[in-house]
Amino acid sequence: MKTVDLVIKNARMLLEGGVIAGGVGVLDGRICAIARDEHLPDADREIDVNKKLLMPGLIDGHAHFHDLAMLDHEDFTTGSRAAAAGGVTTFVDMPLTSNVIRPADVNEKIEQGEKMSVIDFALYGGMIDAENYLMIHELSSMGIDGFKAFTSDPFYANAGVIARALSEISEVGGHLTIHSEDQGILTEFAKDMEGDWDAPVSHSLSRPNVAESVAIGQNIEIAKLTGGHLHIAHLTTAEGVDRIAEAKGEGVTVTTEVCPHHLTFTRDDMNRLGPESKMNPPLRSSHDRGALWSALLRGTIDMTVSDHAPAPMEKKMRGKDDIREAWAGVDGTQMILRILLSEGIGRGRLSFDRLLHVACRNPAKIFGLYPKKGTIAIGSDADLVVVDRNVEQTITADMMFSKCGWTLYEGMKMQGAPIMTFVRGTQVFGENRIMVKPGHGEFQPMGGIRTNRGK
Ligand SMILES: [Zn+2]
Predict the structure, then answer these.
(1) Do residues 324 and 206 lie in contact, with contact meaning Cβ atoms separated by under 8 Å?
(2) Which structural domain, as residue segments, surrounds residue 285?
(3) d(CA 337, ligand 1 centre) in Å
(4) For position 343, which CATH number holds?
(5) How many domains are contained in the chain?
(6) Does pLDDT of 380 surpass 90?
């Protein structure tokens, strides 16, 4: 038999049919064999993982790593290192300061990403006004089929813009991702917080659940009208879960995602955690957190993403006496898999089959990267993660690869962690360090999933 580049053997492989004993062979960056150990080919490098779990690399579909105006927060190198150490093998970079991304920006970002990232990446486009949706076809031809809009400040887009964008995007087979909080409700409820802004929890109380459910309801109505693929960003509320479950039941093309911080913390943690715990949408109640976990298990929530957007501590601490002044955004890309293992599977709130779907397979499909990414299959990229379910870790800032130097998860005890990460057959993370130089990452154009256009 021909010698291949790499064999990973003696694993418990997380495949679409279940957990199977054996391993994989890798040739030229792709999976060329999936077999019991005795049937694996000879290889230049052989890794015996001693019955640990072998799964596809995660796809982090919502990551703010490289904003040209905020490179003090994170960049393609630091962000992708954190991702790799979290078992992520592909991320989708989203704009941060300006929600617009033009064809010229795309070329610049691809060039910088391919110089700086240690893992593969795709790019989101932004959507605010008419000028943006005129660029949809051109951006799509460049491999960008995911577009981001907001129903809240600072990138507020009205219902008309969203309707126009959604029908235009459906023509290219892409999707519109919407940060769904209603700005009118946010503005009014903020007035009730006067005098209480010194308490971090006021940030959450000023942005009530109804702001999310109203915006989701409106966006679903627009999706029904246009037939375009609506994707609700970072879902946080039980009411939002119900709205989306109902719409899916009616056949509306709607998908959604959830972040590790909303699966881990509640607003009751905010005063203890301080301004670091500010993000949008905010932390909610334990009832909401429970609804998110069960929606993730049931299938109402399609995927997990980080919404990784931390800032230097100084920008967080500006909110020490007035939470409105703090940067909104937290770390997360290094934590997705750990939270799913420890808080999800460890506590009986998630199954391995669902983990495979929400962290790998579904995001690959939603971003048009499947089956190149998101699965262990013959011919797929050898994007792989070895997971040790028995490793116990207390999370500290010094194990994190983010530029920010702090973590919202400081001091948390976790069971289960990624211990090796491979991108196209090259080991990028292991022994708690990054094993490749910046520039290993390649841009991945989205193929676009075909939605029920014209319906
Ligand atoms: Zn975001």
Answers:
(1) no
(2) 58-366
(3) 18
(4) 3.20.20.140
(5) 1
(6) yes
